[in-house]
Amino acid sequence: MYSARDITKRYGGVQALAGATFEVDPGEVHALLGANGAGKSTLVKILAGGERPTSGTLRLDGAPTAFKSVEDAARRGVALVSQELNLFPALDGLHNLFLMREPVSGHVAISRRGMRERAQRVVRQLGLAFDLERPVGELALGEQQLVEIARALLGDPRILILDEPTSALSADETARLLGVIRSLREHGVGIVFVSHFLEDVFEVADAVTILRGGRVVVARRPVGELTVAAAVDGMLGEAAAAVRSGASPPQVERTIDRRDEAALRLADVSIRRKVRGVTLDAHPGEIVGLAGLEGSGVQAILRMLFGVERPMGGRVVLPGGGPCPRGIAEAIRAGVAFVPADRKQTGLHLEKPIAENISLVSSCALRRDGLVIRNGPMAQRAETWRDRLRVAMASPWAPVGALSGGNQQKVLFAKWLETGPSLMLLDDPTRGVDVGAKAEMQGVIRSIAEGGTVVLYTSSDLQEMAALCDRVLVFYQGDVMGELGRDELSEHGLLQAVTTGELV
Ligand SMILES: Nc1ncnc2c1ncn2[C@@H]1O[C@H](COP(=O)(O)OP(=O)(O)OP(=O)(O)O)[C@@H](O)[C@H]1O
Ligand SMILES: [Mg+2]
């Protein structure tokens, strides 16, 4: 009922889409797959009125359609939850939910009570457990993503487009969202589902379309006729072979010399209202996972080590021998790097060139002699990282905002690696990164650990956590419940541990 035919889209010299055709019917879950930069977000933005195609036609119920804007499309039943969050951090959940809706609904300003009642239905459906009266900026990334989804659902769309909706969600939240998708399908809603989590795709989708380099390489294939391996082949083309042989590189037995002095030492550390008595010794070269749901204390520990949160008691010794940093500048000087989960709000300067983003911290914060790095070396560094992490970019001087989501994530990662840290804090470092690049980034994380950096890692992707970490500390409601060693790690075991606080 909604179709896009022969869509092309150019951004300057970049051909994001080269004649893509895509349709979705009522009651269908149609997954759209592709490597980072394949054109998925571009296509769904075009479907949802956020971008105009360079050529091609859209038809809604058979009639040619051109939406003026995302709001226009939403009014006509086509809603997009975009890959990057578009919330107002200072406003509370309720206001964010109704923001775009109030003026266009034509009603007299809806009362707060009215808003709350309408929101309740959707909130119950998604199982949101947080306070809608809190500024959304204080919510976890996954919760913010759910607020975005709730906002789309409030308009009762006929077509709901979800661009990587689960990338910041916990396993529980994901399961619930997949349930909501199924129930919307039963009610005849057509759903476009973009995701790098092939398991979720195979669980919920009816049909799959795969884009590669802006072209459709697998067209609306019923999910039963496709295997995960074939999907990876479709997404990555010739590069798939390399991923297959080197994919989730087998965990190399690394011997970590624990007789050495610990490089990072936390002794009985408490953070007011967030963490009680955490003790942790991490050795050079170790990748230590911190597993825990929102409110478990994991985020507080990372923030403390980056100088954003103060410990209330206990002792912290950084790998360089220094104390717990007071403030971010001090943390950076002490060799601490932090890749945050939220690349848009706190990670990158989207309007600035890629090269500048990558050199930003290392040049500004580390150099006290005031030297400015010249453009040549800056571009060279960007190109080194482009090759190492396979960042798809037209030029080092293009703004980061012009990169696809997964490629932005790689730049964020590169920016912190560039500082040569002795302590690397990673919060969902591969969020939105495709299956091929994920394996590469995991390889890079291992190699920086091998160079003697202490890595503390957390992620909503428990499978990755189990594959990557040497051991994992399980946090539950502010306490460390115990530790799982390399041989005890599994996705299932971690899921059980973070949700119940019990280690099996
Ligand atoms: N505003 C823009 N200006 C210039 N180039 C752009 C812009 N938006 C997207 N592109 C380019 O278009 C191509 C497709 O990007 P798109 O965001 O659609 O990829 P994607 O499939 O969603 O990838 P990801 O999985 O990383 O999110 C990329 O090469 C990207 O750099
Ligand atoms: Mg995208």
UniProtKB/TrEMBL annotation:
The keyword Phosphoprotein does not apply. Residues 2-238, 258-502 form the ABC transporter domain. Keywords: ATP-binding, Nucleotide-binding, Repeat, Transport. The keyword Ribosomal protein does not apply. InterPro entries: AAA+_ATPase, ABC_carbohydrate_import_ATPase, ABC_transporter-like_ATP-bd, ABC_transporter-like_CS, P-loop_NTPase. PROSITE patterns: ABC_TRANSPORTER_1, ABC_TRANSPORTER_2. It holds the Pfam family ABC_tran. One of its GO terms (molecular function) is ATP hydrolysis activity. PANTHER family: CARBOHYDRATE TRANSPORT ATP-BINDING PROTEIN MG119-RELATED (PTHR43790), GALACTOFURANOSE TRANSPORTER ATP-BINDING PROTEIN YTFR (PTHR43790:SF9). This is Galactose/methyl galactoside import ATP-binding protein MglA. It comes from Capillimicrobium parvum. The lineage of its organism: Bacteria, Bacillati, Actinomycetota, Thermoleophilia, Solirubrobacterales.
